[in-house]
Amino acid sequence: MVSATSVSTSVSGQLPNKPASDFGTDFGTQLMYIQVSLSGRRATALIDSGASDDLISQSFVLQNNLNTQLLQNPIECELADGRIVLVDSSINSKLKFSVGTDTRSESLQLAVAPLKHADVILGRPWLSRHNPDIDWTTGTLLKLRSKPDPPVQSWPLVTPRPPIISSSTAPVKISVVSRGALAKLARTEKVYVAFLQPTSSPVPDAPSSADEESLKKHADAMFERYSPVFPEKLPAGLPPDRRVQHRIDEHPDSAPVNGPLYRHSERELKALRYFIEEEVDAGRIRPSASPYASPVLFVPKKDGSLRICYDYRALNKQTIKDRYPLPRIDDLLDRLRRAKYFSKIDLKSGYNQIQVLEDHVHKTAFKTRYGNYECLVMPFGLCNAPGTFQRLMNDLFRPFLDRFVIVYLDDILIFSETLDDHKQHVGQILKLLQDEQLYAARQKCELFKRSTEFLGHIVSGDGVSMDPKKTESIDSWPTPTCVRDIQVFLGMANFYRRFIKNFSTMAEPMTRFLTKSLPFAWGPEQDHSFSSLKQAFQSAPVRRIFRPELPIRVSTDSSDFGIGGVLEQKFEHRWHPIAFESRKLTPAERNYPIREKELLAIVHCLTVWRLYLEDVENFEVLTDHHSLQYFKTQKELNKRQARWQELLCNFTYTIKYIPGPSNSVPDALSRHPDYLNFVRLLPGTAATSVLTSVLGNITSVSTSVSEAAASPIQMNTIGLSAPTSGFLGDIKSATPLTTEFNLLSDPSKSRTRAQHNHLRGLKIQDGLIVKDGSRLFVPSE
User: Fold this and answer.
1) What PANTHER family does this protein map onto (predicted)?
2) How far apart are alpha carbons 434 and 426 in whole angstroms?
3) What is the mean pLDDT of residues 296-324?
């Protein structure tokens, strides 16, 4: 460890003497300074026999634009004021100084540290090389006893940093503005002018591993220093008495809530006994004789264990809503404009770290097979919990808010312009959390980052950008491989066609395949059309930036294999998309009843977009499933619905039914081609070769199968294995016995309208029936 403890002497006739208290510690009356020249720049050097290395001020390096080199192994430095900092860079410089009549010049390596009252500290290495005579009574350097040895690097260095031109290979975004716009901008903001010289030479990637490793060491040091803030589980006992406690104020004449007692399985009863015993011992719940009694259920967690879920719907209905505002996201992000370093802290079970007001504890009572209990800490499921939590966060962090920290519920972001400032800021916040006995989840925290995700945005030294996840459902949409794929994509595109200039012309290369006369053939023209429409979805005037003062709505839908949704706002009498969302259903979710699939789509979308929706007084959720309008008043909930209800209680929303044709965008998102439950066999792949070889074992069909393989093959199947030759032989034997084969083989036969529609797209190829040239017809026989 480098020590920078200052001695108590001074050099007469050099600089005004500074008291040792200027360094934050009372080491004596005066210090010893000399004037030096550092690479031609005048500097003040402190002679310090207590410093184990030679140091240079970080601010001096920045002010004089000196080149630094990263150290391979950052070192800890304890400053005179007791601060411990990590030193991760150094400079090589020419030092010129005079002692009496002796003038010396030498090359010197100096570690860069956040010094306050000296530009340079010449410590024991410098004193050992020069071995000066010091008059300790007057605090004067008399002479140097020996000539300096050749400079020796004290610390191994990493490869020098490349020039700034190579710091990024990302494409440059250039905006062209008129003279008038530039003049208007110059009146309100600083305007910087840069001359760009294009070059054809390749730009190498900037090395970032050393910088990331250095920042990781800073983070590890902070995690270690404030380890009590990051426990594995919350300590037993109540949180300390804070200025903010949770209240449950009800409307006048409200009667105590008394819900039903739900039945539980033996496994759930075992979990209930364990929960009661653990929480009573921890002091977070206690037996209750309250007239209030809300029901509880158990819902499975991801690891298979069970979690208790309070059904506070009746209590929430008669609770006076707390209108304490949640911060506007755009206001928070505006504070980050000049920040270069970021740390994100996520509180652990945040609600359980706030006490319920003693006079209102009885209202949280819940009934179980083993008696009634009430919550002493704020439970999940209460409608005013977010407002209470935000009030506490604002109260605790008020001295630092918007200066170097912003807080949205349990998400805390620390931001700084310099690394030195960031060390100090992170330390202040973690110390505050430690003093207030607030605890964080280490696995969800990120310290000392150049960029991070926060409130649905990516924040970095380059500014704030939208999280790509908002349009990932559109951006990742795969290239259509059949007419059906085009129909799904254009079904969504048509909904926003009024915002897309020349939509019909742009989409024509794809829409031409919707006529039955043209075979599907994807080429460069279609690829350009598809890419252009995807880009149009993600930019103005279709997609807009979120504005909290405007009306907002959410539309959702589900299919057999996916869920989708779109978040929209009303701009000038028209609804514009803000974000798109979709995901594939898991195998278990595919077995849900249709109603619960539709409800899952609502829960998923509201959870993803909670940052936009939690503080909205009332917004509409549009669905094409009629019965979901009554979900909020449903008397009894199953376990799955109870879990979802707990997630939805933080939103003020109304579910509204709309007909399916009016819900085309979520419908298309839920039918994302990548979610389909079939295997796609593309030309030239191993799977196609296997299928072709198997089909080739059947007499006289190899040629037609090879032709069919020129387009993607879709097989509705449970497994991934190709059909056996025996099975395909059975298909070929049974096909001539079908009505479809008889009608197709004799076009002169009369057909009903239903038969005509059924046979559309079917044709006979070498004794087999193929649909749309790519799917094999399997007879029921």
Assistant:
1) PROTEIN CBG26694, PROTEIN NYNRIN-LIKE
2) 12
3) 85
What is the distance between the alpha carbons of residues 577 and 579, in angstroms, rounded to a whole number?
6
Task: Please name the fold of domain 266-456.
Answer: Alpha-Beta Plaits (3.30.70)
How is residue 346 written in tokens?
């996520």
Q: Could you tell me if residue 65 is left (phi over 0), alpha (psi between -120 and 50 degrees) or otherwise beta?
A: left
Surface-to-core class of residue 153, CB atoms within 10 Å of its CB (0-12 exposed, 13-18 middle, 19+ buried): exposed
Asked if the model's pLDDT at residue 341 lies above 90, the reply is yes
DSSP string, 603-669: HHHHHHTHHHHTT-S-EEEEES-GGGGGGGG-S---HHHHHHHHHHTT--EEEEE--GGG-HHHHHH
Which residues belong to CATH 2.40.70.10 in the chain?
2-144
DSSP per-residue string spanning 303-349: TS-EEEEE--HHHHHTBPPP-PPPPPHHHHHHTTTT--EEEEEEBTT
How far the first Cα of the chain sits from its last, in Å, is: 83
Give 75 or 498, the one with higher predicted confidence.
Answer: 75
Tell me which residue has tokens 């500014």: 463
Q: What region, left, alpha or beta, does residue 500 occupy, with left being phi > 0 and alpha being psi -120 to 50 degrees?
A: beta
Superfamily of domain 2-144: Acid Proteases (2.40.70.10)
Candidates 3.90.700.10, 3.30.420.10, 1.20.120.1200, 3.40.50.300; CATH matching 465-676: 3.30.420.10
pLDDT tens-digit map of 342-400: 999 999 988 899 999 999 999 999 999 999 999 999 998 898 999 999 999 999 999 99
Q: How far is CA 545 from CA 137, 329, 332, 466, in A?
A: 70, 12, 15, 9
Classify residue 207 by its DSSP letter: P
Report whether 774 contacts 711 (CB < 8 A): yes
> Under a CB-based contact definition with an 8 Å cutoff, are residues 350 and 409 in contact?
yes
Structure tokens at 22: 């200027």
pTM, entire model: 0.49
